[in-house]
Each structure stands twice: as structure tokens, then as C-alpha cells.
Amino acid sequence: MARIVTLGAALQDIYLIDHDDLLPTQIGGEAIFGKMLVGSKIDIDKLQYGVGGGGINAAVTLSRHGHEVIFMGNIADDSAGEAVMRVLDREEIDNSYVNYISNKATGTSVILLDSRHGERTILTYRGASDSFSNLSAEDLARIHPDWLYITSLRGDMETLASFIKAAHKLDTRVMFNPGALELSSPRELLRILAKVDVVLVNKSEAAQLVPGNILSELLYHLGGYAPITIITDGPMGGAATNRATGESYRFGIYEDRRVKDATGAGDAFGAGFLAAYAAGQSFRQALVFASANSTAVVSRIGGNTGALDDDVDLHPMPIQKI
Question: Quick one: pLDDT band at residue 33, thresholds 50, 70, 90?
Fold first, then answer.
């Protein structure tokens, strides 16, 4: 197994779950979440706590697969930070490089979840995970990981570039799943993607970076940057290409299950791919495990609750070489 650093957000997730009061309402062609009048009081059916954020979600999947995982991110010395540390301990994830921020609280998401349809709206206070400029890329030299898995750094391109540069010096391979703030600087992001080994985006994100309307066009244009490019397309599956092996695949979803909570679906796919690929599985096998892991995560409430172990038996799924 591999030594892998995950870099990104750590948040406490607070789920407010209801089966009828949070139903979407159509207003002017838009779906407005919940029939909630200003000033009203609404009884919620269930309250559930969890821990998420891109860096944590990825770390859980990778650790459950048997890799040695080190999480790098920011929390505060508060109850939410304690919850993050408990999850890291429980999942056997190294917390030696967790940084404590003194002037902000640990990031927290309040997730309004319609249990009937799995729709949700997320209210997020980024807190300690709002900035990553305090993290030092020099720490990679002490860890000397095989892989660095980077989730969104809130658009901090300078810190992002410093970690990728440090990884190159160590021959550490890099997988990157950018977020909305990185995508808001497409030219700069494309230059960075040319320096990573694996890039993961969804279809709408890919369309912000390169020309194209259909998945094959987007894969063709974006696939010229990183050696491995993966573009997901929600319930339609996705497509991926590996320049080193000359393989390209179009894949569907692993199973048609009811989505209970879509939170963390992208993290589950990306970390699922790396979990299998870093363990020596083939490009195709890693895509299958990624799809299975994403399906398992969205089938339960919580951004990483359903993450799969490495000994799960996988059945065939729709995947075609293109």
C-alpha cells in the first residue's frame, strides 16, 4: 500500500433531516428549497452529526482501503475540531500535520436534507478551512508520500503551486480535484493541471476550462493536460483517459440506488479511484472501484459514512473502452 497525504478542508457536518417540510418548491422556473416562511418555526424529524470536507472525505476512503494516510488541514480548538480529531483517530488517519487556527472556529456545514428525495441545501461556514496559506509545503519532505491528493484550497493558487512543486522534487505523484474558486481562474488552473498526474472534474466544470458540449469533446480537449483525466457526469456516469496506456473509457453508474445524500459524491469517486490505483489496480479497475465507492457513499447520509473497505466484492458495471 501507499503513503498518501490528503490536503483540504475539515468540517463538522450538522444534518437537519425532514421528510416533508424541506420539499423543493418551484418559483419562477427555479427550485426553491423548502416551504419555509420567514419567522416561522419548523419541527425537524431528525438531527445527525458527522465530519466532512474534501480533505477528510478523501482521507477516510483512502485509509479504509489500507493506505497510510496523513491529513493536512486546519481546525480550531473547539468542539467541532474535537469531532474532526475523533474521526481521524477512529479511521486511523495520521493527524500530526493538523494545524490549529486561533482566530476562527472549525468549519461547519448545516445540511438541510429532504429525506424523501435526497435533495439538500448546504449552509457552510468555512472558518479555519477558509484559508490554507499557513500550511507549509516543506512538510512533504518530512512525510515523503507516494501520492498527494489535493482538494479545493479555496482558490489559493500560490499555496497550490508550492505543494505541487514540492511534490515534484520528491517524485510524489499528484491527484487534484479543483473547486469552484480554482475554476474561476481557468487559465491559471490549466497551467497547474499540466503539472499534476491525475485530474478529476465533473462535466460542467470541464466545460468552464475547455471547449466542448458533449463528454467526448471535453475529454479530448482536457485530456491533453494531465496524464490521467477523469470527467464525471452524475447519474450518466462519466469518461476517463490515460495517456500513458492509451486507454479511454466511457462508464455508467455502478448501481441504480436511491440517493439518500449526494454530499461527498465527488470526493468518494476521486479518492476511490486513487485508493485502487495506488494499490496497484489497473486503470479500468480503479474506475470501477471509484464508481462503486461513490454509489456506496450517496446511499447513506454523510459525506464519508458509506466509504468502502478494500475487501469489498465488486460486480460488473457498464464500462466501455473508447
Answer: low
How many Cβ atoms sit within 10 Å of the Cβ of residue 282?
A: 13
CB 14 within 8 A of CB 108: yes
pTM score > 0.85 for this model?
A: yes
Closest CA to 116 of 14, 258, 236: 258
Residue 205: in which H helix or E strand, if any? Answer: helix 203-209
For residues 62 and 271, is the Cβ–Cβ distance under 8 A? yes
Distance CA 273, CA 293 (A): 9
Q: Is 269 helix (H, G, I), strand (E, B) or coil?
A: helix
Q: 3-24+45-315 — its CATH code?
A: 3.40.1190.20
- Residues 6 or more apart whose CB falls under 8 angstroms from that of 81 comprise 75, 100, 106, 128
Taking alpha carbons only, the member of 50, 156, 145, 35 closest to residue 107 is 50
Distance CA 246, CA 288 (A): 18
Q: What is the grid cell recorded at 314?
A: 465488486
CA-wise closest residue to 65 among 317, 286, 263, 301: 286
Strand partners, 30: 27
Mean pLDDT of 10-27: 85
Q: Where are the alpha helices (DSSP H) in the chain?
A: 54-64, 79-90, 139-143, 157-169, 180-183, 186-193, 203-209, 215-222, 265-277, 283-298
> Within a 10 A sphere around the Cβ of 160, how many other Cβ atoms?
25
* Band (247; pLDDT cuts 50, 70, 90): very high
CA neighbours closer than 13 Å in the CB half-sphere of residue 302: 18
Record the cell numbers describing residue 135, joined without a space. 500550511
